[in-house]
Amino acid sequence: MDPFLGEIRLCAFSFAPRGWAFCNGALLPVRQNQALFALLGITYGGDGVNTFGLPDLRGRTAVSAGSSQLTGTNYTQGAQLGTETVTLTSAQVPSHSHLLQVSTSAGTSATIGAAVNIPATSSVTAPAVPEATYGDASSNLTAMSSRMCQLSGGNQPHANVQASLVLNYIIATQGIFPSRN
Fold first, then answer.
1. Whole-angstrom distance, CA of residue 161 vs CA of residue 83
2. What predicted TM-score, i.e. pTM, was given to this entire model?
3. Which of 37, 82, 89, 91 has its Cα between 20 and 30 A from that of 8?
4. Residues near 131 by Cβ (< 8 Å), separated by ≥ 6?
5. What is residue 176's DSSP assignment?
6. Residue limits of the Phage tail collar domain (predicted)?
7. Which CATH number do you get for residue 171?
8. Looking at the 3D structure of the chain, how many domains does it have?
């Protein structure tokens, strides 16, 4: 069966057969590819006078043009979406809390550390008037260890690519000119 001009297929081999080209964003001359240009226009690049672009599906997943039934997002033909890596912000992390573990055992050290009992009164409940126990370096209060309230994470991007199998997308540069319904 002859392909439609502009039809895109996946192939498991490493070359584009005669009458096909890789979907790699290449610019083709309008003059030698007028029928294909009539279908694609400059949707995928080019100046529309001398050149036009083929779709570039390298490292991309194809998505159908139109509005999503789930979100209502409109996907315009030729638009490139997404990114291969992403760095999350604190607004994108699920809300969570951190526990403070305390003990009613007698304190063993006056220095705050990762797993040390700090001397306290006989009760660990809050007094009627809270005592100023910890402060910054300019006060005469005990400085809290920097290990107690450290930032975590490295603010580095992580991979945002779904599990994939790499194949080649090819587009028909010769074939039957499709008629509209």
1. 8
2. 0.69
3. 82
4. none
5. B
6. 6-61
7. 3.90.1340
8. 1
